[in-house]
Amino acid sequence: MLAASLAACESAPMKSLQQLFQSSPGYSSLRDGLRQYDDGAYADSAKSLNGAHEQGLNDPERADAHKHLAFIHCASNRERSCREEFRKALAADPALELTPAEVGHPTWGPVFKSVKAGR
Predict the structure, then answer these.
(1) Could you give the CA distance from residue 64 to residue 85 in angstroms, rounded to a whole number?
(2) How far is residue 1's CA from residue 109's CA, in Å, rounded to a whole number?
């Protein structure tokens, strides 16, 4: 019933609320990519996260996928790609913040801070 009620609303705030209750087409690939990331399978994770983008993600999911792609690039000493992924993450979610552990990471924490400050 809630989904039906939300489907009838077309305002921007309501569309954002709808995204919280609906799975995007790429959600399964995003979930797989995040699991692979947590398992340390970074190449597989990057493939899954990029595939999730191609399949379609909502804004919060897109921000999360780009954030993790940024982590992978930073950890692989690809700072330019890392910065670009953080820019894309912030474009999807301008209020994006890293967790204390993430922002304290010596490799990607300073890059994220720099990208966020430059917006």
Answers:
(1) 10
(2) 43
Alpha helices in the chain (DSSP H): 2-7, 12-21, 27-38, 42-55, 59-75, 79-92, 100-103, 108-117
Residue 53: both structure tokens together: 């983008």
pLDDT value of residue 23: 81
What is the rounded distance in angstroms from the CA atom of residue 3 to the CA atom of residue 84? 35
Whether residue 52 contacts residue 68, with contact meaning beta carbons closer than 8 Å, is answered with no
pLDDT band at 1 (very low <50, low <70, confident <90, very high): very low
- CB neighbours (10 Å) of residue 66? 24
Residues 6+ positions from 23 with CB-CB distance below 8 Å: none
Tokens representing 43 are 């190449």
Q: Which of 85, 10, 7, 17 is nearest to 46 (CA)?
A: 85
* Tokens read off for 106: 């010596």
pLDDT surpassing 90 at residue 8: no
